[in-house]
Amino acid sequence: MSGELSLPIRLLGLLSYGGIRSTSDLAKRLGVSEAMVGMMAEDLTRRGYLQALGGGDCSTGCGGCAVVSQCKLPGAEDRLPLLALTEKGKLVAASSA
Amino acid sequence: MTQPLRQPVTPTRPLPRPNLRLVQPACHDAGPGALPHPEALTFALVGQPNVGKSTVFNMLTGLNQHVGNWPGKTVEQKTGTFRFDGAAANLVDLPGTYSLTANSEEERIARDYLISQRPDVAIAVVNAAALERSLYLVAELLALDTPLVIGLNMSDVAAQHGIHVEPHVLEAALGVPVVPLVAARNEGIRDLVAAAFKLAYDPAAFRPNRPVIRPEHQPVLEQLVEMMGGCACDRYAADWSAMKLLEGDAEVTAQVKGSVAPELWNEIHKVLLQHEDAYLDIAGGRYEWIGRMVRAAVTQPRAGAVTLTDRIDRVATHPVFGLGLLLAIFGLAFALTYAVATPLAEWLSEVVLGGLAGLAATLLAGAPAWVSGLVIDGFIGGAGTVLTFLPILAIFFALLGALEDVGYLARGAYVMDRFMHLMGLHGKSFLPLFLGFGCNVPAVMGARILEERRARFLTILLAPLVPCTARLAVLAFLTPAFFGSRAALVTLGLVALNLVVLAVAGIVVNKVAFKGEQTAFIMELPLYHAPNLRTVGLYVWNNTSSFLKKAGTFILLSSAVVWALSNLPGGNPETSILAMFGKALEPLGALMGLDDWRMIVALLSSFFAKENTIATLGVLFGAPEAGASLATQVSAVMVPAASVAFLAAAMLFIPCLATVATIKQETNWKWMWISVGLLLAISLGAGVVIYQGLRLIGVGV
């Protein structure tokens, strides 16, 4: 293990190239399960390396919107929100990429 | 080589006597049996919420339990007693937690109890169906001194998902007793308690394989332990506190800060700042440890659903085939909408609205002409025609909801993103723009996720170029009448035109505002599964009912206004205010092949609401008559080239009033006018180019 980057750092590194990464794709690249990618993503979000961009739950600020149901598709609320790197996350990602 | 996070602890007898707090006066105390036995062993049940921890607690304590609150907290505290082979024991059911990082009150209570009250053994109930998540908590529990026994619950649920956990292998890998349980059926609980008693009587047998810390952090950990030598925070062990400091644990940090001299804290703080990201390695050590445990003990034959998802995704998320599939699915969705909903909409228009118009004409025969005109041409012709959208919207939303519920729509976004990425259009603007397919209002508001002002404003500028459902519904209403069997193809072409314009504008915005910077997202692609009819039905209901409300209020009022403007003064539409206005714009309309002023007015009226295009056409062309729906009447006044130009202009036109108001709210007057002007130029420009282009090559004229 020594010399290799830790899993959360490798996960952040995979996000340094842009584009949507599916949890299943990230799991394959890291050699872990999709559930573990989900766990790490949640953890990294709590720690401020990733940020939730709203999405399924319309948490981007359209709570009072009259047409809120239009962006609230069925099933979307049960999933991981769309996550992106924060400035703090970008620093780690850039150093590991 | 890596080092254990904590050196194995070998407690010596006598065991620290449990100091089980005597609970507060009970609100529903079960009786004297619930009082703790001061000399008995104390076990603490710990685990995530909903893993069956409370079931184990209830099975063991029965009526001998006490329910109250943790002192000074609103979190429920459950304590009890039980006897096992003649020996008494106290049992504490700790609040359900996912970790011991003190993120919540529950986590803080569980962690403080384990550290300060020192139960003889902690019994962790873990979920075999979500073992990795459960093992994270186990990894943190192992960092404490308390001996641990694991109850592997829900193996039956795991088996249903094709997951098989080998308890003996897990036990060997963890170095901790693992007892399989089906708590709900009281299976294995006796063995679990036996294992806990055995460990309590022989704590030296507790030799777990703990997660390891990376070698580069070991000296830092030791340095912190040394620095904290004078720390008065005896609540937590120094090495555990040092690790939590490195992890950035707020509570431990505050406690250490308050317990050491300010100069010493400054030194500690300096060290922590130098290792700000140490948490990633510490957590990484835990994840790698979990991975090893799971690889050793879990056999996960690829269940049917997983295999099916993988197989479908080979095509659905493929950069080329995936895009083709997306286009095919949306083409099919439009074709299905036209095949099923258009005949229904026509029937509603011709039979129901035609019948209603006839009935109103009979009933209002004696009423003043303006009353019957307003009711028949204004309300029935305008708002009534918009209501014939209902089948189109219902089918469209049912398909959209079903595609999402099946798990496909996330893939659609995934391949669209790859496509946009290839074209250089990418950035955080993707998400708000994606929301625009539902409605442009949330798309404009969604731009709030962009911190930088210029990027936000430019994204807002792009948002109205995304074809919203109202525009698609107008398209779905008019295209079949204009193009018959080629309607689905024309619709796809028009949506593609919208997206190309969006992409071109987006590339410019990306270069200007984001300087080509790429943003990555993590998206969970759900497993494919059969759609839930209730969920999809609810989605359709929510959307169609909000459409009905809009048609019954705003569109009804707009129809009345359009009718009044088309009849004033004098009652002749051809000499009305609206006609004068429309005719003044005829030279511009003529460039797009729109020789009929009514088409120009209909296009402009979409500013109030996209559906108004249809309402206005309904009013201006009069209430539907039997055998001639509105769409048929409209198609008769334009050549096909002009129809395409009209639809393209309608798709790219200024967004509805609600969106423009939101743009003003989210930006300022200047940007609102820039948006309106730009879209006006793009839409009319596209209409003119399309019509003139088709005329030049002699198509559709």
Task: Provide an overview of this structure.
The complex is a heterodimer of chains A (97) and B (701). Chain A has 97 residues and is α+β, with helices and mostly antiparallel strands. Chain A has one domain (7-96): Winged helix-like DNA-binding domain superfamily/Winged helix DNA-binding domain (Arc Repressor Mutant, subunit A, Orthogonal Bundle), CATH 1.10.10. Chain A is built from four helices and three strands, in the order αβααββα. Chain A has helices at 7-14, 23-30, 34-46, 87-96; strands at residues 19-22, 50-52, 83-85. Chain A has a two-stranded antiparallel ribbon with strand order 2-3. Chain B is of the alpha/beta class. In chain B, the strands form three sheets. In chain B, strands 3-4-5-2-6-7-9 form a seven-stranded mixed β-sheet, with helices on both faces. In chain B, strands 1-10 form a two-stranded antiparallel ribbon. In chain B, helix 12 (304-316) packs across helix 13 (321-363), helix 13 (321-363) crosses helix 21 (487-513) and helix 15 packs antiparallel against helix 22 (533-565). Chain B is elongated. The interface between A and B is large, with 62 and 69 residues. Strand 3 (83-85) of chain A pairs antiparallel with strand 12 of chain B.
Indicate the topology.
The complex is a heterodimer of chains A (97) and B (701).
Chain A: H1 7-14, E1 19-22, H2 23-30, H3 34-46, E2 50-52, E3 83-85, H4 87-96
Antiparallel strand pairs in A: 2-3
Helix pairs in contact in A: 1-4, 2-3
Chain B: E1 3-4, E2 41-47, H1 53-61, E3 65-69, E4 76-84, E5 87-93, H2 105-117, E6 121-127, H3 131-141, E7 148-153, H4 155-160, E8 164-165, H5 167-174, E9 178-180, H6 189-201, E10 212-213, H7 218-227, H8 238-247, H9 250-259, H10 262-274, H11 278-297, E11 298-299, H12 304-316, H13 321-363, H14 369-387, H15 390-406, H16 409-422, H17 430-435, H18 440-446, H19 453-462, H20 469-483, H21 487-513, E12 520-523, H22 533-565, H23 577-584, H24 586-591, H25 597-605, H26 612-621, H27 630-635, H28 640-652, H29 657-666, H30 669-696
Parallel strand pairs in B: 2-5, 2-6, 6-7, 7-9
Antiparallel strand pairs in B: 1-10, 3-4, 4-5, 8-11
Helix pairs in contact in B: 3-11, 5-11, 7-8, 12-13, 13-14, 13-15, 13-21, 14-22, 14-26, 15-22, 18-29, 19-21, 20-21, 20-28, 21-28, 22-26, 23-25, 25-26, 28-30, 29-30
